[in-house]
Amino acid sequence: MVRVMVVDDHPIWREGVARDLAERGLEVVATAPDGAAAVRIAPAVRPDVVLMDLQLPELSGAEATARIRADLPGTRVLVLSASTEHGDVLGAVRAGASGYLVKSAGHEELVAAVERTAAGHAVFSPGLAGLVLGEYRRLETTGPDAPALTPRETEVLRLVAKGLTARAIAARLTLSHRTVENHVQNSLRKLQLTNRVELTRYAIEQGLDADD
Amino acid sequence: MTVDAVRARAHPDLIPLWRGLVVYRVVALVAAVVNLVRGIDGWARPALGVAVLAAMAVWTASSSWRYLRTGDPAAAVADLVLTALAAASTLLVDTPARIAGGGAVITTVWSAGPVLALAIALGWRGGLTGALVTIGVLFGVRQAVDTDLLFDAQLLLVAGLAVGLAADTMRRSTERLRAAVAREAATAERERLARDIHDGVLQVLALVRRRGGELSREELAHLAGEQEVALRRLITSTPEARPDGTVDLSSRLAGALPARASLAVPAEPVLLSAADADELVAVLREAAANAATHAGADAGLWVLVEDDDAGVTVSVRDDGGGIPEGRLDEAAAEGHLGVASSMRGRVAALGGTISLHTAPGEGTEWEIRLPRGGA
After folding, report:
1. Do residue B25 and residue B173 come from a single domain?
2. Which of A106, A134, A138 sits opposite B265 (nearest CB)?
3. Which range of residues forms the domain containing residue B12?
4. Do A163 and B262 touch (CB under 8 A)?
5. What distance in Å separates the CA atoms of residue A82 and residue B102, rounded to the nearest whole number?
6. Residue where a domain stops, chosen among B140, B159, B178
7. From the list A84, A137, A162, which residue is nearest B232 (CB)?
8. Do B254 and B110 belong to one domain?
9. Last residue of some domain: B178, B200, B233?
10. Is residue B197 in some structural domain?
């Protein structure tokens, strides 16, 4: 059974989502009202998936995502947010979230996304694909060391952004379903990697122990 | 605007007054030099006189530079003190007999500089204070109230008050103008919000109130969901133009597309001239309306906006039946210019290109490319 932790500062919403997930056969092992509590509780309950809001008191969703991913590499974070702040969404993805879903998504969509996240897949909405494409274009202008998408990855992300399903993309590009998934995941992984490289570089510059 | 920002630059509307002051100061300096040179034989200490004049020239240059750059009241106060000292130096440079006989102070009309500076920087109160201090200094040098002093006093008071009042009026009218512009923008924004809320949310709420009992839970959820997306887009879209006249295409699109449409955009604003953005939005609205007609109002609609150095690319896709091969040519042959040719024409007028990807069962996909710095 997939073990889920729900992090949201709105009590009615938090309990509602927890109830919906439980009704559909997922195990809600904890809920947390803010980022700091989430970071504290997560190691005790070791969830498979953390359902994370972005605008949280104490510690932002992106911060909390980074810390939970550092503490528990086996735990995946799925962002569920009403936030339309593009920067927040990108921040969470760079911090290690493996997907993003808007709060207006239906129950079925939410449960499917949590299950996909637990299985190690990326949950990629067209909106997120647009943001990631834009982020790589922005990085392109920052220098030759910046991570870049391969032409194939760009092609796949563009089709995701245009609303094609993985199956339709595979058919159109004559790739296997699995290869399409890999391209999508690689595009996220490279962003997260640069984030880690930047953090390490920053830590070294500040004279801190990067492993802390 | 912070206080620092105000200090860092002279009030833009007062710059003409500061320029006037600088011109006055330079001309007055020349008058003081002429005055010194003409009476050079009669001065008690001509060398000291030349030194004072040199100091006045240096101060004229440095204070002018500060006035034009910062409009700083502190510089005007320093100006008042230094000018008073320069005027007082007349007591050392000139002979008591000549001073008593009504000879000009060494600074001549240059003394009026700080009065005008204080008036511009601090308004009529500054001008009045500067004039009174300067009159006091002149009296201290002359040691007598004569016609000349009274005449100078009148001129200083009139100049200080008049320039001060002018500066106050200019400042006030700028504030008023700014407030009026802000009010107008706020009203326009409220009207825009009211219009959109009326068209969407209020209609749906009214419908739910009237027929709430008859609607199924799915229908209610669908209606609420659509309006949630529309409202969220409404509050995040900022259709106002930036100071350079460009607008963010993503925000414009968010406000213009139907709520069911998915909008994928970069995090950074996609800046286009307001005219280009409006035209592009109009083309996409046309594409969206066309998709609704042919693929059905509930069909999916996806819009992707991409921005790179070379230009902006907007893709719009529906998941309807697609357009059978040759249908567009057929339509054109039958004399229906139709949507495709209208969209092509509008994009071409923008200096861009448009391509169509469609096949039965694959939906319809338009890709519009607008080069930067194009037509």
Report:
1. yes
2. A134
3. 3-178
4. yes
5. 82
6. B178
7. A84
8. no
9. B178
10. no
A126 contact residues in B (CB cutoff 8 A): 262, 264, 302, 304
Least confident of A130-144, A194-208, B83-97, B279-293: A194-208
Q: Answer whether residue B229 is part of any domain.
A: no
**Chain A touched by B300 (CB under 8 Å):** yes
- Residue B327's pLDDT is 62
- Written as six digits, the tokens of B187 are 């009203």
**Is residue B314 within 8 Å of B280, Cβ to Cβ?**
yes
Closest CA to A59 of A72, A74, A41: A41
Q: Count up the domains in chain B and report the number.
A: 2
Q: What percent of chain A has pLDDT over 90?
A: 9
Put simply, whether A137 touches B (Cβ < 8 Å) is: yes
Question: Does B225 sit within 8 Å of A134, measured CB to CB?
Answer: no
Lowest mean pLDDT among B88-97, B223-232, B334-343: B334-343
pLDDT at B310 over 90: no
Among B residues 260-299, those touching chain A with beta carbons less than 8 Å apart: 262-268
Tell me, what DSSP letter sits at residue B303?
A: E
Q: Contact A104/B268, CB-based, under 8 Å?
A: no
- Min Cα distance A38 → chain B (Å) is 27
Q: Does B373 lie in the same domain as B286?
A: yes
DSSP assignments along B42-78, one per residue: T-S-HHHHHHHHHHHHHHHHHHHHHHHHH--HHHHHH
Residues B152 and B297 reside in one and the same domain: no
Q: Give the confidence band of B5 by pLDDT, cuts at 50, 70, 90.
A: very low
> pTM for the full model?
0.58
The enclosing domain of B279 has a CATH number of: 3.30.565.10
A127 and B264: CB-CB below 8 Å?
yes
Nearest to B236 by CA among A91, A113, A96, A88: A88
B302, B303, B315, B356: best mutation site toward chain A, by most A Cβ within 10 Å?
Answer: B302
Domain shared by B356 and B251, yes or no: yes
- Spatial distance between the Cα atoms of B11 and B18, rounded to a whole number of angstroms: 10
Q: What is the Rg, in whole angstroms, of the alpha carbon atoms belonging to chain B?
A: 36
Q: From the list B229, B265, B266, which residue is nearest A104 (CB)?
A: B229
Are residues B153 and B296 part of one domain?
no
Find, among B165, B103, B100, the residue nearest to B131 by Cα.
Answer: B165
Cβ contact (<8 Å) for B267 and A158?
no
Q: Among all residues of chain A, which has the CA nearest to that of B263?
A: A127
pLDDT at B157: 94
Asked if B304 reaches chain A (Cβ–Cβ under 8 Å), the answer is yes
Q: Do B317 and A134 touch (CB under 8 A)?
A: no
The dihedral region occupied by B71, where left means phi > 0, alpha psi between -120 and 50, and beta the remainder, is: left
Using a CB-CB distance cutoff of 8 angstroms, which residues of chain A are in contact with residue B265? 86, 127, 130-131, 134
How remote is the C-alpha of A96 from its chain's centroid?
A: 6
Per residue in A154-193, pLDDT (tens digit) is: 999 999 999 888 888 888 888 888 888 888 888 888 888 7
Query: What is the pLDDT, as a whole number, of residue B322?
Result: 65
Q: Do B302 and A126 touch (CB under 8 A)?
A: yes
Q: What are chain A's domains?
A: 3-123 (3.40.50.2300), 127-205 (1.10.10.10)
Instruction: State whether B29 and B169 are in the same domain.
Output: yes
Q: Return the pLDDT at B191.
A: 74
